[in-house]
Amino acid sequence: MVRMSAEERRESVIRAAMSEFARGGYSGTSTEAIAKRVGVSQPYLFRLFPGKRAIFLAATERCMDLFRQTFEEASKGLEGEEALHSMANAYTQVIAEEPERLLMQMQTYVAVAAAEEAGDHEFGELVRDRWMRLWDTAHIPLGADVNETTTFMAYGMLVNCLVAMGFSPEHRVWEGLYPSARTKGRLEVGPPGTAPDEG
User: Fold this and answer.
1) For residues 35 and 17, what is the distance between their CA atoms, to the nearest angstrom?
2) Are 158 and 177 in contact (CB under 8 A)?
3) Cα 25 to Cα 189: distance, rounded to the nearest angstrom
4) What residues have CB less than 8 Å from 164, skipping those under 6 apart?
5) Phi, psi of 80, deg, nearest 5
6) Cβ(18)–Cβ(101) under 8 Å?
7) pLDDT tens digits for 22-81?
8) Are 172 and 166 in contact (CB under 8 A)?
9) Residues 24, 194 contacting (CB under 8 angstroms)
10) What is the Cβ-side half-sphere exposure of residue 102, based on CA atoms within 13 angstroms?
């Protein structure tokens, strides 16, 4: 059996953290649950990251960067309407196939509000920076038109909310969205009623 390097373990922790935080949010997810998912002890987890907050920040950065890469790859060589529909299709495909990425994104927004309320502004700055990178990645192929980009991102947030609330792809609530912004499937992240460990 080949042993993982510390960097490979760190990557495993980030992936596991995205899954756990997606389901339970920052407060409802324990470092014990993350360590268990990775197959390491909590003391080892804290050798890789100084604490739960650092793990959440790393998972948040990864989540936002993955969505930025999705837009970047989908819009490559395209502009205007073609870019818009390609990015929308790619985004809805990702959240249908990897719903935890959507849930992690939504948990991040909640965590920013809670952190700001508690006086922690560093976290919000990091998330806003990553979100603006996402905005800029969509903005350029959309002709750097602020109205087009605002509409595109607004549609994205509406899609996030509808999917997170569990509206099926056939529901009438989707009728007003352009076809590429409609979800490709139902959000499924685990058995109903499951919740991460407290702590």
Assistant:
1) 9
2) yes
3) 14
4) 102, 103, 106, 187
5) 60, -135
6) yes
7) 999 999 999 999 999 999 999 999 999 999 999 999 999 999 999 999 999 999 999 999
8) no
9) no
10) 26
Residue 3, both tokens: 């042993």
pTM for this prediction:
0.84
Q: What angle do CA 127, 42, 1 make, to 5 degrees?
A: 105
What token pair was written down for 95?
Answer: 């959240």
Tokens of 199: 């702590």
DSSP class of residue 196? P
- Give the chain's length: 199
Find, among 95, 106, 94, 134, the residue nearest to 26 by Cα. 106
Find the Cα–Cα–Cα–Cα dihedral 38, 44, 45, 48, rounded to 10°. -120
The answer to whether 75 touches 138, Cβ cutoff 8 Å, is: yes
**d(C-alpha 79, C-alpha 138), whole Å:** 10
DSSP state of 25: T
